[in-house]
Design brief:
Blueprint lengths: L1 H17 L16 H4 E5 L4 E4 L4 E6 L5 E5 L3 E11 L8 E8 L10 E6 L10 E6 L10 E3 L10 E7 L3 E6 L2 E7 L14 E8 L19 E14 L11 H8 L5 H14 E8 L22 E3 L1 H9 L13
Antiparallel strand pairs: 1-4, 2-3, 3-14, 4-13, 5-10, 5-14, 6-7, 6-13, 7-8, 8-9, 9-15, 10-11, 11-12, 15-16
The chain binds 2-acetamido-2-deoxy-beta-D-glucopyranose (2 copies).
């Protein structure tokens, strides 16, 4: 009894520490697994290279192949994170993806949570996209796209996904950038089956950069994406019957993580300044907004195409969006 009380105290402490900025490392079990301990290569033979005793992974893309890896285990809920540095210079058509999926296990009814980095042309910023699929809802995209307040090719930045029974939160450098709260109307479209963590690099020429306008140029290959400090803090499930192997307390931990008032302000500032597209405001695709979409103030910043109004201003005046210094608090 006493020990289980102590355990819940630890969990509470952990949940308090977990998302206070910069304190993630104080969480005792937020350890990073080496590649051999937690992951397995999916494709790309020698285009996957381990560094720092398997604590860092380089995935490269050349004419021959891209590369990718996945977690050995499936997880039902958890906190998943990596420090990522993207290929620099000209990377049009290059897609770097860091995501959760169970497409290999549930072919027709798969779930997915994505960070997708959509390449850049020289002198322009990389675009980042987040997306969610649930129970095979692949015809219903929930894309949002963003610019960043730093150059993601210059240094490592932390990209994280929290997935609990009730909500999904995407973070960049511990700033929440998107929160999806489960609603009844979403039904199975809220991911609810165990997923693995994936990282890949591949040729997305016909889709990625400005909708496929800019293709890959292998003159600049190899394109190398670097991953470090891979964190899996999830409720692992039995690979055969998918029952959780963690106890309820651990599972409940993820549900206690929410967006604090300060974090919410930072999220709103980020979205106002850097979100370039949201499916929630795209009336061409969805004449009626999907059930989890709010009709709050944010909607005013978007056109009917779902593109941000500031994008329109940018085109008209031929002005480029100024990037804030990397260390500025958004
Ligand atoms: C951390 O992991 C160890 C070993 O797996 C376990 O005994 C301990 O209870 C965990 N602590 C927390 C706070 O989850
Ligand atoms: C998921 O999809 C399958 C097949 O379309 C359906 O039978 C099932 O009820 C759905 N599950 C949920 C939770 O909506």
């Amino acid at each position: 009894m006493a020990s289980s009380l102590f355990f819940s105290f630890l969990l509470l402490l952990a949940s308090l520490l977990l998302f206070s900025r910069g304190a993630v490392s104080s969480f005792p079990n937020l350890t990073t697994l080496s590649f051999e301990e937690g992951y397995t290569q999916l494709f790309g033979d020698s285009n996957l290279m381990l560094h720092r005793d398997g604590r860092a992974v380089h995935l490269s893309l050349d004419e021959r192949t891209g590369a990718g890896f996945a977690s050995q285990d499936l997880y039902l809920h958890g906190f998943f994170s990596a420090n990522i540095k993207l290929p620099s210079d000209y990377a049009a058509g290059v897609v770097v993806a860091f995501y959760m999926s169970n497409g290999d296990v549930f072919e027709k009814t798969h779930d997915e949570l994505d960070f997708e980095f959509l390449g850049n042309i020289r002198g322009k910023e990389w675009r980042v996209q987040t997306n969610i699929y649930g129970n095979g809802s692949t015809s219903i995209g929930r894309e949002e796209r963003y610019g960043l307040w730093f150059d993601p090719t210059e240094d490592f930045h932390k990209y994280s996904i929290l997935w609990s029974h009730d909500r999904i939160i995407f973070y960049i450098d511990n700033v929440p950038i998107r929160e999806v709260v489960r609603t009844e109307a979403m039904g199975g479209q809220f991911p609810s089956k165990p997923m693995s963590l994936y990282a890949t690099i591949w040729d997305g020429s016909n889709w990625a950069t400005s909708g496929g306008r800019y293709k890959i140029n292998y003159k600049y290959a190899p394109y190398i994406a670097e991953f470090a400090d891979l964190t899996l803090h999830g409720c692992a499930v039995d690979p055969m019957d998918h029952t959780p192997t963690c106890n309820n307390l651990a599972a409940d931990l993820y549900s206690t993580i929410t967006v604090s008032a300060d974090q919410r302000m930072a999220m709103e500032r980020f979205r106002k300044k850097y979100m370039t597209y949201s499916y929630c405001y795209d009336r061409v695709r969805y004449s009626v907004p999907l059930p989890e979409c709010s009709t709050g103030l944010e909607a005013r910043q978007f056109q009917e195409s779902g593109e941000a109004r500031f994008m329109d201003r940018r085109h008209r005046h031929g002005k480029r969006h100024r990037r804030a210094p990397a260390n500025s608090v958004i």
